[in-house]
Automatic annotation (TrEMBL):
SMART domains: LIM. Gene3D superfamilies: Cysteine Rich Protein (2.10.110.10). GO terms for cellular component: stress fiber. It comes from Salarias fasciatus. This is Actin binding LIM protein family, member 3.
Length: 135
């Protein structure tokens, strides 16, 4: 979102700008996220209370959450390595994987290379329903 420190001493036609967290009038440096304003000291993670003004954050259900807490609460984990997945994801048989973790259990090559290394499966495609695919 639009996260930018602002110097604000002016008032809007609807009255002074108020901090979304403490509801006090914002003066001096403030953080603006879209049309919402916060004192820099008030812009903290809803879960752990860490400073969000100088780091990344996510917004979910009106709450502002740091990256670590967001991943812990809502992130998708790889079924093979158990790390959080950011970016591309492979979904197969109800499980999720990093592309590099979705490999053949026989040769350990990534799936896009599988047909090249196991030509016997060219006619049937990838064998996702049997032992060739390991988590």
């Amino acid at each position: 979102g639009d996260l930018s420190p602002r110097l604000n001493g002016s008032e809007r036609s609807s009255g002074p700008i108020r901090c979304q967290r403490c509801r006090e009038v914002c003066k001096g440096e403030v953080v603006r996220v879209q049309e919402t304003h916060f004192h820099v000291k008030c812009f903290t993670c809803t879960v752990c209370n860490c400073d969000l003004a100088r780091s990344g954050f996510f917004q979910k259900k009106g709450e502002y959450i740091c990256t670590a807490d967001y991943q812990r609460l809502y992130g998708t984990r790889c079924d093979r390595c158990d790390s959080f997945i950011t970016g591309e994801v492979v979904s197969a048989l109800g499980r999720t994987y990093h592309p590099k973790c979705f490999v053949c259990s026989v040769c350990r090559y990534e799936t896009h290379s599988h047909v090249t290394h196991h030509p016997v499966y060219e006619d049937t495609g990838w064998r996702t329903g049997d032992r060739l695919w390991r988590q």
